Amino acid sequence: MTSDPMVIVGAGQAGLQIAESLRSEGWEGPIRLLGDEPHPPYHRPPLSKAWLLGEAIEAQVGIRGPEFLERKGIEHVMAREVAAIDPAARSLTFEGGETLRWAGLALATGARPRGLPVPGADLDGVMALRSLDDATRLAARLAPGVRVVVIGAGFIGLEVAAAAVKRGCEVTVVEAQARIMARAVPPAISAFHTELHARHGVRILLETGVTAILGESGRVRAVATGAGELPADVVVVGIGVVAADDLARAAGIVCERGIVVDASSRTSAPGVVAAGDCTVRRLDDGTSQRLESVQNAVEQAKSAAAALMGKDRPFTATPWFWSDQYDVKLQMAGLSAGATAMVTRGDPASGRFSLWHFAGDRLIAVDTVNLAQEHMAARRILDRGMALTPDDVAAAAFDPMAAARG
Amino acid sequence: MVKLTFIEPSGAEVAIEAQEGWSAMQVATSKGVEGIDAECGGSCACATCHCYVEGDVAARLPAPLDGELAMLDNVAAERRPNSRLSCQIKVTPEIEGLILRVAEVQS
Q1: Which of A20, A24, A43 to probe by mutation at the B interface, max B CB count within 10 Å?
Q2: Could you give the CA distance from residue B36 to residue B104 in angstroms, rounded to a whole number?
Q3: Which domains does chain A have, with CATH numbers?
Q4: Cβ within 8 Å, pair A329-B32
Q5: Burial class (CB in 10 A: 0-12, 13-18, 19+), A310
C-alpha cells in the first residue's frame, strides 16, 4: 500500500462527501481534506436563512463534527491555500512553497460570487453571501430600520431579502430581468413569489439596471439605478457565482465555465476527479450542464470517490433544488428549460400548487410550492422515467403519490 | 443537557448529552454518529436523517408536521410507524432518554 494520501482540495459539502465516500468505498490509506476557510465543513443552505435570523450557532451548521472526522481518519487542514497542482507529478504546492504528493486528487473548490462590474462595488457595506464569514458579517448589519438593497432576484438574493425584512430592515430588491428567479422557474412562480415578497413589505424593482454604488467616506450610501438613486446602508450582491476552476485550468485540465467532468466525475487528467459547484458536466449529447446544488455536490462527490477507487458510479438521478422564502417551500425536480407544455395543478391563490413541465409528451420537470409530498413523488416519477402525458396530469383524478408508487 | 441514545446501523449504541434547542440530527452529526447523512442540513428536503424512535418517551414527541410526513413517504429504508426525520426532532427536557435507531440506509 502506498503511503501517499488521497487529497481533496476544498472542504465544503462536496469535499467532505468525497472523504466520507472514499472510506465507504474501501480506501484505507490517509485522507487529507484541504480547506481554505478557518472553519470545519459546514452546510451552506442555512446561511441565507436561519443563520441571518440568528437561529443557529456554528456547530449547528457543521456537516460533521471533529469526532466524526477523527473516527474516519480524515485529516482536515483548515485555512490553507493551494497554489498549484501538477497532475503529471501527482503533487500539489501550497502557498508558501510546501509540496504534497497524492495517490489521487479530488478538486472540490466550489464557486465564488460573481462581482458586480460597476464603480463603488468595493465600498464598505457592499457584500456578497457565499461563506460562513460572509453570512456572519451580513447578519451583524441586519437590524430594524437598516436600509438593505439586494442586487439580483435569484434564490440567494430573495432569501436574504426575506430574512432581512424579518429582522426589521427596509428591503429593496433590484433585478435586471423582467421577473424574479427568471433563470430557474416559470412565470407563474415568479408572480407568486413577487406577491409573497410584496405582502411582507419587500419592494422589488424589475427591469432595473445598477449603474453605480455610491459612497461617502468609504461607506455605501446609495445604489444608482435606472430607476433613480436608492438610499442604502447595506448592499447585497447576489448575481450568481463563478466556478473556482483556476487550479485546474492552470494545470491544463479542460475547463469551460467550470472543470469539465463526465458522469462519473472524472476530469481530463488521469487520477484527478472533481465534484460540486466547481464543475460543469459533459453530457452524452456533447452539451454541458452546470448545476449548483447540494444534491449535485453530494452525488458528484460519491461518483468522484468511486472513480478514485477505479469504479464507475455515474450520477443519474433527477436534479432537484429548493428555496425557502418566508414559510414557502419552493421545490424543483428536473430542469424545465426546453419545455413545450405546462400543466398547473392546484390554485396558486391557495398557496399550494404545482407546475408539470413537458417536452412534447414527455414529463421533464415539476415545480411545487408548499407541496413537499408531490415534489418527492415527482422525483420518483422522473427518476423512473414513467410515462405521463399532459392529459394524464391534468385529469382531476390524477394522484401523483399513487402514480409514484405504481 | 438531555440524554439521547443513538443506535448505529452496526448496532453500536452512542449515548449523548444533547444541548436543548438543537435538533437530534445536529447532535448526531456533530458527535459523529454513523449512518445519518443529513445532506440538506436540516431543511427537511432530503430524507437522509431517518431514524426509528424508541423508548417510553417516543410517545411524548410532538407529531410530525406535513413536510416531514411527505419526506417520510420517501425514505430509502423501510418506513415504520415510529419513523422520524431526526432533523425535525427538537431536543427538549421532555425527550430525556429517547432512543433513536438509525435507519440502515439513507439513500
Answers
A1: A43
A2: 9
A3: 6-112+241-308 (3.50.50.60), 126-237 (3.50.50.60), 327-405 (3.30.390.30)
A4: no
A5: exposed
**Residue B107, domain member (yes or no):** no
Q: How many domains does chain B have?
A: 1
> Domain of B65?
2-102
pLDDT of residue A26: 96
Q: Inter-chain contact B38–A63, Cβ cutoff 8 Å? A: yes
- A55-79 per-position pLDDT tens digit: 988 888 999 988 899 999 999 999 9
**How large is the average pLDDT for residues A139-146?**
98
pLDDT tens digits, A161-178: 999 999 999 999 999 999
Which triple of cell numbers denotes residue A280? Answer: 460543469
3-state SS, residue A89 = coil
Contact B41 A61 (CB under 8 A): yes
- Closest residue in B to A324 (Cα–Cα): B43
Cross-chain Cβ contact A62/B74 below 8 Å? no
The 10s digit of each residue's pLDDT in A188-198 is 999 999 999 99
User: For residues A313 and A299, is the Cβ–Cβ distance under 8 A?
Assistant: no
pLDDT digits (tens, 9 = 90+) for A215-248: 999 999 999 999 999 999 999 999 999 999 999 9
The Cα A62–Cα A92 span in angstroms is 27
Q: The domain that contains B11 carries what CATH number?
A: 3.10.20.30
| Chain B contact set for A43 (CB, 8 A) | 40-42
